[in-house]
Amino acid sequence: MERTGLIREIVDSVENIYEGRTWLHTVGLEPNGRVSFEKGITKAMTSFQATQAQATAELQLLILAEQTFIMQELQFCDSDDTNAQSSLEQAASSFDDALRVLEVVEDSVLYEAVEKSYPTHRKYRYKSLPKDAFHIACIAHRTRIGNILRAPGINMAEKALLTQRSANMKAAQDVYLEKQKTALGQ
Q1: How do the pLDDT tens digits run along the chain, 186 residues long?
Q2: Which domain holds residue 167?
Q3: How many domains, the chain?
Q4: Which residues, in sequence order, are bridge partners of residue 129?
Q5: Are 133 and 93 in contact (CB under 8 A)?
Q6: 11 with 72: CB under 8 angstroms?
Q7: How far is it, in rounded angstroms, from Cα 45 to Cα 163?
Q8: Are 179 and 59 contacting, i.e. CB atoms less than 8 angstroms apart?
Q9: Nearest to 15, CA basis, from 76, 81, 67
Q10: Residue 125 forms beta bridges with which residues?
């Protein structure tokens, strides 16, 4: 899937999900709400599955897809829901950091210097390599998604989408780990 089309699909999917949730609670629009919600979940699932399949070749795209989804959720977040806003803002910021370090890992000389700046203590390592901004963003987001998955009352289709998004973060870390190894000549 090409970049612009994927981002458009993600934006549309969140809009459909939001519209569906709103209409589910609007008398007379409930059937339209179900259709919109299911359409959004299906679009998002298809998009996230496509990005996971391309993770090795397009790691940046996988992160951009998740960041776009988060930014759309933030746009539709109720202004009184400060906890959700804060969490989404933190996620968006951490993905900005992840994208920055993704550029650095492509330069082996530069990344060797980065590697030396990280303590060797396991707290600062992920599978013996630096637990840098990329790993931190993925780990934090998987935790965030895991917390949502534990909440009661979430539709099983939405749980499946959350599970896919979590799997994408794991896939992103696996691909990134290989990039780290390559940069460090391992």
Answers
A1: 688 888 899 999 999 999 999 998 898 999 999 999 999 999 999 999 999 999 999 999 999 999 999 999 999 999 899 999 999 999 999 999 999 999 999 999 999 999 999 999 999 999 999 999 999 999 999 999 999 999 999 999 999 999 999 999 999 999 999 999 999 999
A2: 3-183
A3: 1
A4: 126
A5: no
A6: yes
A7: 10
A8: yes
A9: 76
A10: 130
Query: Which tokens in the block code for residue 19?
Result: 């519209």
Amino acid residing at 35: V
Query: Which residue shows structure tokens 């339209």?
Result: 32
